Amino acid sequence: MNTKFKRRTIACLTLLLIYLDGNSQQADSLINREEAGDKKHATAFIGTQARIDNGKFPTRAMVMPAVLTTYGFVALKNEGLELLDDHIRERVWDDQPHKPVHFDDGLQYVPGFSVYVLNGLGIQGKNNLLDATRQYFISSFMMMAIVQTIKKITGLKRPDGFGNNTFPSGHTSTAFVAAEFLSQEFKGRSAWYSIAGYTMATVVGYMRIYNNRHWFKDVVAGAGIGMGVTKFVYWVYPSIKRRFFKDKPGNTMVMPYYQRGAVGLSLIQNLREKAH
What we know:
By secondary structure, this protein is mainly α. The protein has ten helices and two strands, in the order ααααααααααββ.
């Protein structure tokens, strides 16, 4: 492996680790200060949350998704980055021939499904399950619309030659929507939830390259889109809820299910009103 490739690989991993470390420090700092009874910090945090709810765009949180997505689009027409794609494919696929492994098909959903498992175990997240599910579904639908539109516009051939819809990676976008969903719901409890979610999502991205289904730029852009869309939905959701949803306590239940090898969520709505 040449020195130039090593430097680029280390740079990409370093950016990801800096992002995860930022989440870890923020969550750990909040937990430690709350336990110490730091009222001044708690007041400042509440004030920050109020500003976000009032419409202040989370600019700093969107830096990493923007960087990853921009890299993907730049790599579409950049000769040097196209050569990097070819080099990674040669290292992973040509130099070490192997059969594709498809556990990433299921792994992409695991971080999101974990939110429901944790709630089922009595570990409460940031939102109730109905609000959490709405944000997850909205994020997923937005991500799919964006990804499928870009795929049709770009029409790029996959590295294995089967299909002209390689950019960006849908599996990776789905995995990072799920990872960010898990992070948003539970990073206030422990940074390890975020780390676990992003680790699984990163593995999904790597497996898309390992299976020769995607180029490196596809995976990077997919990660940025998945993260960015979910962060955006969590920011805008309070406004969406006030405008479109008027919940009544106890009328809705969200439950995970597993049937014939497929996992998913069931939404149970009680439409009957109480008798007066």
